[in-house]
Amino acid sequence: MDVTNQSVYIGGDGGIVALHQENLTEQALTTNYSNVWLLLYQNENKEIIQCYNDIINVSYCIKMTWDLHLLCEKSFNMSVDKTHPPTYSMITDIAVITTSYGFLSLNLTDMTHNVLHKLKREPNETVVFKSSFVYKASYFLFFQIFQKNGDYISSKIGKLCLNNNAIKAVSTHTSSYEDMELSCVYENKTFRTIEHGIIADGVFVVVFRENGTTLICVFGSSDIALGFHDSRKRFSVELSSHISEICNESAANVANMAYNCTEVHCTKSIYPVYAGKVVITSVDILIHDWYPVLYIGTEDGRIGKIRSYFIDNDLIKNADFQQFDTVKIIKIQTGQDHILALSSNKFQKITFVPCSSCRDCESCMETLNPNCGWDYDTQQCISNQSYVWSWIPSRVGFCANISHLNKQIRIENDTTHNEIKFRIKVPEKIATYCTKASCTVGTISGSIRRNFTSPNTCTISLYNLTAGHYNFSIQCEDGSKNVVIAVKDVDLLRCNDSLACTECTNLGCLWLSESFSCVRACRAVSSIVVEPNFTCEIRQKNSFSWTFEALWIQNTTYVRCLGVNLSETSAQYKIKLKYKTFYVDNYAPLRVYSCRELLYDNTNCGECQYWINKKFECQWCTSDLKCYNEELETCNEIHTIPNCIPSIKMVYPSSGPVNGGTLINITGQSIGNRDDDVIIVDIDGVKCNNVTVLIASNR
């Protein structure tokens, strides 16, 4: 796909179509050329250049008018694998193309081509090109190397200098092409597999993917330049001895790439900006006013927006996505008011929705429209108000929000001030211009510290408010206006309004069991109380209920039911705490068990250990090799944490084909239990797949 000011050109297996960019109506169509692997528009002559494979897999490149009429055609003595199509970039009237043959230059005037450089690789290796671009008179490309059998080897970034006379480098540098591995670190893991790369304003944006995680990292051009220097093996001494020479100039130029340096060291600017599980298949950057916005297409047909990576280094784990199709997005290209998206199913122009259609701050931040921003003063999503401190552009990616705030707040019974604890996260622009901050509950205002990076406290008097539902809000002032930046719902309660024990204690009040009431203060009580008004009620389905005396340990959450004597049964018991005629809580399940009955085999040490690990009160008796209940049975030699020695009795079958696939049964003692997270079985170092415990500890 290539895009001009007026048209969109799309090539593929069925030919080439030209569409009006404004309304996507068809301008021209040709089906004479299938298997198109290169399509570009030369703006100066308003000509289309396309390359394709014929039926015997020989490549041709042709020049066409803007409305797809043939001008000339040239045959190349080569074929191109469309499974891994080449990448290319234009430099005035020259197209640089990367293929399995190496770097080709295609003269767009006379359609002649030359081999600029042949990529060196082993006979059993395949190169898969991911993306390429031209920057500072150098052609950059990202590619992966595989073995012929499909095994991944490595990823690299390559650089081909297009004008050797313009290269400024140390005298020992003799080659115009070089490549190196590139990596980025996230959560102590190094990502090296490159899936895509793009450049904007001298910043390299690289997409990595390792073990199901996608990572987007930003590299300054200085990082790339120094990386190439560090990877060159032709230097007679290490790079460190050249660093002062490289950095002498305030705008040094290494391999024709400019970057800023201090006197003796260069500033590195590598950092990750996004981490997630999505598989990214296309990337484009829209430079909007003074900041960039990164747009991505995914394998499952979604289009996402990632906020600017120049503003701060906060890692984003959730991009803003919209569903475009159900299949892989092949390419996206952005304009100032739209995105052009191409999948194998369809092509569509996605026009950015008006900012006014976003009704709250969250939807304003999530819109694909980079022009939008949320104005906290007017509480509206509006366009381009960067000169207003209360307007936050959608590139920021989040709204001011309050967290760690108790949903229920106690009203003091006197004029004592409440200390309401909370945290608040605000955009950097708000934090910069907010000279004074305050808090409000209902119509009552309080004071807070202007601190947006650590836990905060709202000091406020709530004595004159009645219990009920209120808004807790944070305001900012800049000296001229007071703006609400965040709101959270809270419930105000007094201790004597609480009718439940949990609600009472969550407020910091005391629950009186005698009166079944909530109070602010309470008389001292003994630490252990046998409360005659508390009982444990145990019942069983289709059976009678039993009532037992309760021993309540004050200042704890423990209640002990006394004198309980129940029989083991498959039918589940239920237990509930009761105060006089009131039930304190819902029924909880109660299991009555005998350790000997839990086991398939009472003499199996491994099974006994399994139930001990599950916190059942069992013990392994070493003297008679049986599993007993603690305290109820006697044993001469007890091990509450037994050391069970695994043993294998039989492996069936004992032979099988070398290509695998044989189902193997292993029988033994203490070799596995139900619910084991990981069971590893290997035969002479080769791991078995889908290992399952059939009978605990035996097979």
From TrEMBL:
One of its GO terms (molecular function) is semaphorin receptor activity. Keywords: Membrane, Repeat, Signal, Transmembrane, Transmembrane helix. Pfam families: TIG. InterPro entries: Ig-like_fold, Ig_E-set, IPT_dom, Plexin, Semap_dom, Semap_dom_sf, WD40/YVTN_repeat-like_dom_sf. GO terms for biological process: regulation of cell migration. The keyword Signal applies. Its main location: membrane. One of its GO terms (cellular component) is plasma membrane. Gene3D superfamilies: Immunoglobulins, YVTN repeat-like/Quinoprotein amine dehydrogenase. It comes from the Eukaryota. Residues 1-352 form the Sema domain. It is found in: Membrane. PROSITE patterns: SEMA (PS51004). It is a single-pass membrane protein. This is PLXNB.
